[in-house]
Amino acid sequence: MKKKLIHIVGTRPNYIKLYPVYKSLEKDFDNIVIDTNQHYDDNMSKIFFSELGLPKCKYNLGIGSGSHGYQTGQMIEKIESLLIKENADGIIVYGDVNSSLSAAIAAVKLGIHIFHIEAGARSFDKNMPEEINRMIIDKISDINFCIQKTHIDNLEKEDIRNGVLVGNTMTDAVHLLQDRLKKPLEFKYYLCTLHRPFNVDSIEKLNKILNNLNSWSHKIIFPAHPRIKNKINKSFENIVFIEPLGYIDMLSHIKYSEGIISDSGGIQCETSILRRPLQTVRPSTEHTVTLKMNNRLVDLDTLHENNFYMTDYELPDIWDGTSSIKIKKILLNYEK
Ligand code: UD1
């Protein structure tokens, strides 16, 4: 009999990470997907299922937005009852969002095995809720699948010994989609995404960043996360705000841009894989390996059109597009 696995997702980056892993596990496991609906706008959620050919979720929890306490509390309660009902062999959680934390807490108390994809990343900045989420999820997971060796080292420093190096499932996703990427625009442009509370919750700070970008020599294409939509209170003639993009469009926009400005986690990996330079508007990063390749951390003073750089780098050998297959083999042989 096939083992039953429950994938818990809820945010845009989760759906993207689910894609290659689900495709790899599709035939050999009985897979169930629970969506917490932490992200609920269609262009932050549904679009990924349709364009990536993912199956309908068995359960949608309808949690939506709210404080961290509200979100995680609601999620733990609802996920717990589904885990009891489904009696699965294990759950898979992705990355560092509140949906992943909540699922891991619900599962560990029921004695259900937890498999964590993208484990061991550390920004060493506890002001980011994602850093707290990562530390807790890693501590209670049964297998921590890591994208790079330094993440295994991070875990070992915290006395967590179950890290396994499998590489970056994001590379698998890009490989699976590379033939579907197309040049989206005929002019030169930069691409910008910002959504972290420390960049966008203060209108004053956000305006400083946007005023800066407004003076650059190419248009800035800015797919706007819902978090900033009602914060843009004036027009910037050089910045073109658009709706959040689907994944194929996003990768296409990255691939053909002159450079990217972002505070995202995932985009740090995607720009490295697609070989485009990136300025990350954050004081720290959990993807330190990208700093040696194409990524530079910047702040309000150093964010500048001339501050992009890219070395003549090789991607880590382990980012070879087969991470999801490695994960499948390990899960097939897993006995506790
Ligand atoms: C979450 C993740 C972050 C990830 C990001 C990707 C946590 C702690 N953070 O941050 O790691 O990089 O997703 O986008 O889990 N909203 C909508 N429609 C939506 C989704 C959100 O209007 O479909 C609005 C709501 O007002 C909400 C706000 O955006 O309050 C922020 O959403 P939330 O899920 O709290 O966190 P993100 O900033 O998206």
Principal-axes shape call: globular
User: Radius of gyration, Cα only, in angstroms?
Assistant: 19 Å
Q: Can you give the helix content as a percent range?
A: 25-40%
Largest sheet: 7 strands, parallel
Total count of strands:
13
Order of helices and strands: EHEHEHEHEHEHEHEHHEHEHEHEEH
Secondary structure elements and pairings:
Elements: E1 4-9, H1 12-25, E2 30-35, H2 46-52, E3 59-60, H3 68-86, E4 90-94, H4 98-110, E5 113-119, H5 129-140, E6 143-146, H6 149-157, E7 163-165, H7 169-177, E8 189-193, H8 197-200, H9 203-214, E9 219-223, H10 226-229, E10 239-242, H11 247-255, E11 259-262, H12 266-274, E12 278-280, E13 295-297, H13 323-332
Helix pairs in contact: 1-7, 1-13, 3-4, 4-5
The structure holds uridine-diphosphate-N-acetylglucosamine (UD1).
Question: Overview of this structure, please?
Answer:
There is one protein chain. The protein has 336 residues and is of the alpha/beta class. The chain is 39% helix and 17% strand. The protein has 13 helices and 13 strands. The chain has helices spanning 12-25, 46-52, 68-86, 98-110, 129-140, 149-157, 169-177, 197-200, 203-214, 226-229, 247-255, 266-274, 323-332, and strands at residues 4-9, 30-35, 59-60, 90-94, 113-119, 143-146, 163-165, 189-193, 219-223, 239-242, 259-262, 278-280, 295-297. The strands form two sheets. A seven-stranded parallel β-sheet has the order 3-2-1-4-5-6-7. 45% of the residues are buried. The mean pLDDT is 97. Bound molecules: uridine-diphosphate-N-acetylglucosamine (UD1). Uridine-diphosphate-N-acetylglucosamine (UD1) binds next to helix 1, helix 5 and helix 10.
